[in-house]
Design goal:
Number of strands: 7
Number of helices: 9
Structural class: alpha/beta
Helix content: 40-55%
Largest sheet: 7 strands, parallel
Length: 193
């Protein structure tokens, strides 16, 4: 992982909205929910809007409620097929019900100036890797950061290092994956501390 100063130099200068990818579950350790709530709250305290998947469950709920409780703007984007399954959050600043998962991701990506992935499962991984792939293809230059709460992403980060060793990923592309262990460190990486 590059040093903090190198990461901050690559961050976008004006971040007004952050896309947050995270689980629709709370996870086994309460520290995950606490970090999600803290992220939402601290983004709102800095007048940074949250853009997320629009659900009222799990870490998704925690980040939205943290931001809303601090008076923040929260935009949810949820496809029709998930409105009932993930229980759409009706108390957001804006809730957009869209036709497909692809439209959801495109809408979130277009509205965000940076991406933060909290712990999650397949959906979180897919969203985060797509944002990284878009960056490597130069479709955007927005920072993509993993909030590695409780070392959740340690194994994945080791795997990415193995990808470099095996010649499947360049070191330059590996280094676009920003990593923070705490919310404060994440905000510092993005230049919004």
């Amino acid at each position: 992982m590059p040093p903090l100063s190198a990461v901050s130099a690559n961050a976008v200068s004006a971040i007004n909205n952050v896309a947050v990818f995270c689980a629709s579950a709370d996870g086994a350790d309460p520290v995950y929910r606490a970090a999600a709530d803290e992220l939402g709250r601290k983004l709102a305290e800095r007048w940074i809007g949250v853009v997320y998947g629009g659900a009222k469950v799990g870490l998704m709920l925690a980040v939205a409620e943290g931001a809303l409780a601090a008076g923040g703007r929260v935009v949810g984007v949820i496809p029709t097929v998930l409105v009932d399954l993930e229980v759409a959050h009706e108390g957001l600043t804006e809730l957009h019900v869209v036709d497909t998962m692809h439209t959801r991701k495109a809408t979130i990506g277009a509205r965000a100036d940076a991406f933060i992935a909290l712990p999650g499962g397949f959906g979180t991984f897919e969203e985060m890797f797509e944002a990284l792939a878009w960056q490597t293809l130069k479709l955007h230059s927005k920072p993509v950061l993993l909030l590695n709460t409780n070392g959740f992403y340690d194994t994945l980060l080791n795997f990415l290092d193995e990808c470099v060793e095996q010649g499947m990923l360049t070191q330059e592309k590996r280094e676009i994956v920003l990593v923070a262990r705490t919310v404060d460190e994440a905000l510092e990486f993005l230049g919004i501390a």
